[in-house]
Amino acid sequence: MRQPTHTPQATARLWARTPQPRPLPPHNARSRRSAARPGWALLAALALLAGSLGACTDYNPNPDEFKPTATTNADFTAHDIVVGDLPSALDVADTNSDDIVDLLVVANTLSRSVQVLTHDGALNFSSTTLAVNAEPSKVLFADLDGGGAGQIDAVAYAVNDRKLVLLTNDGGTWSTQTMFFTDIVHSLAAVDLNGDGSAADLLLTFPSAGNLSVMVNDGAGALTTLTTALCDGASAFVADNFDTDANLDLAVLCYAGHTVRILLGDGAGGFTEQPAGGYTLNEGPLSIVAADFNADGNRDLAIANNLGASVSILLGDGAGGFTVSHLSVSGRPEWLTVGRFDGVNESVAVNHDAQNVLTVLLGDGTGGFTTRLLNVSEDPYALAVGDFSGDGSADLFSLELVDRVASVLAGDGSGGFTRSVIGFDETPAQPRTAKFSAGAKDDLLLLHPSLDRLTILQNRN
Ligand SMILES: [Ca+2]
Ligand SMILES: [Ca+2]
Ligand SMILES: [Ca+2]
Ligand SMILES: [Ca+2]
What is the pTM of this model? Predict the structure, then answer.
């Protein structure tokens, strides 16, 4: 991660031009500036505390280097949706399970509102704006009260205000409930702890406190908060099932100690750690994804170690245990994504901060990986995976900062990619793969914080 070039006096809007929230290491900072941007000084301190780099194994010293073959893209049509002031997060919902997005929700930070947009199926949207009396910086859909997909609710978090806002939808009438936390939330997710499909439970990590909070839902929207002390720098997590019961389990990154902690859920908000202290990674573990890399039916993990120039692969044994290996990659790996780029095996893709390359770790279906480097424009900062070509195998979408472009990297089904480029006037953020119409090809949704709008990149099916 590079040092920010802005002055500390920079306005919120200037910060908003940062296209994607950069890695958010644990921090205590109280200012608006550091709320919108990682706590650089603390990150450096944590990096020093984190100690020496662990050994890397299974390094492929001669990865195939991919050369782009095209520089234009005529496959997408852009549709802009004007929203409130400084939209900084979004989520989508498909309420009738036809794969087509029905609802969008946007956190408008400076408007102090959450905006719900209803899609008519033809790229027309009607909007409901909900005042939240805070500056929301995260937002997600969640069924809080068991109303089902037709009355989906939302949760917003406002880092500047330390507020969590529950927005409950009762037949189109929304009510809000606010909760206050003294510590900053890093990651927020809505989950189903016991796998019964009832109203969502909430999970939050608090890096500075080293805590995980579990907000257990009684099924009707009453939340009971259980706090689990975890580790300094508890940050990103993935919720999945790592053993044989139906209860949701967690893998949580501990930034300061560069470990991943495995928490096996009891379905009621309690967790048992296995093994105590977790597994050691390399420095700066930043992002984590779950997939089944060796096709044995057990969930596995991949973790990007931002300061350790590696991706850790943890193969699950189906009983909550993992076998760990570390794959060396180019510097500063940030955001991991998973896709079947060959149409068959789960593979990993990751961007590298301030470089002009992506790494694809092409899975062989047995837990082994071949490293592919994909040339892109300078400083790729956000990735999405989808089938943009409609051939049944995964493709990549990468946003690149310096030239304000996106690369569409169409997989050839055997691990090769063809690059085409889309240009932007302003740097967009947070690409989401989503479908806005029927057809084999996926569309994309982007956030433009500095332009107060969303952009749908509609694929020409
Ligand atoms: Ca739908
Ligand atoms: Ca489980
Ligand atoms: Ca597996
Ligand atoms: Ca494809």
Answer: 0.85
